[in-house]
Amino acid sequence: MQDTTDMHKLEKAARENSALSSLRLVFNEFMADKMAMISLIVVLLVIIYTMVASLFINVSHMMSTDIMNYFAKPFTANFWLGADAGGRSIAKQMVIGSRNSILIAIGLTFLSSVVGITYGMISGYFGGMVDLAMQRVYDFMMIIPAFMIIIVVVNVIPTYNGLTLTLILSMFYWMGTSRLIRAQTLSESHKDYVLASKASGTSTFKIIFRQIMPNLSSLIVVDTTLSFAENIGVETGLSYLGFGLPNGTPSLGTLIANANDADNITIYWWTWLPATIEIILLCLAISYIGAALRRATNSTQRRSKK
């Protein structure tokens, strides 16, 4: 009994040391890669600023029309990023729009990753008929014109909000993660440590989520990070086309949609350019972060195999 207790303590200490070592590797990787560190700071600042600043903005008052400030120019009193055709502050719309786009992207990334990772690992681990049946479901979901269905559903639903939109999108954006995870799980499931665990009677749940999943951490981290950048683009694209958030709800996509007007492109550039720059910077920054995390995670896995 005492030996078992001591063994559990040693295993716990080993896991804690491994976690600390992984954190050090991540920290060192970001310190070595200046672009990754700058990107991390940019993303954190954007998220923190938008979340905090949005608490002090009255959305209904912000979206009310003020014809006296029709297309107010940037760097003027109360409009440091200018105003749109309705005299509404572009800066305030960017804060609320960024918050909405980021929250939807976070929710969509979380839901699609959970579903995709779980589905892919189960399919890859069991293989055989289970994998065949699950892949037929995957193939069916892939041939569905997801973007068109989302547009139809959004038009059919009488009232919806950001949460509803996130749930609708998550139904169609888990397949890429699933296929990626399945392929790697198929490879891992035939390795010696998995076969030994099966022979020793370890439960399927523990083998999948406690043994195989940690070895996929590099893949999961990179895929999740890049999916976040992609999902910001998905929401922005839908809102740009007019099928994203409901009318009157600010989004980065609705701000960029101001560029559809020729006058806005040539004369009133401030109505769409700041949001466009923000989207580009966010996506590039998140990509740099994903690359740095991949290198750090790969280093961790190489150390664990030594």
From TrEMBL:
The name this protein goes by in its record: ABC transporter permease
A GO term from the CC aspect: plasma membrane
Membrane-topology descriptor: Multi-pass membrane protein
Keyword Signal in annotation: no
Subcellular location: Cell membrane
Organism per entry: Apilactobacillus bombintestini
Record family assignment: Belongs to the binding-protein-dependent transport system permease family.
Pfam families cross-referenced by the UniProt entry: BPD_transp_1 (PF00528)
GO biological process: transmembrane transport
Keyword list, A-Z: Cell membrane, Membrane, Transmembrane, Transmembrane helix, Transport
Organism phylogeny: Bacteria, Bacillati, Bacillota, Bacilli, Lactobacillales
Start and end residues of each ABC transmembrane type-1 domain: 98-290
TM annotation in the entry: 35-59, 102-126, 163-181, 267-293
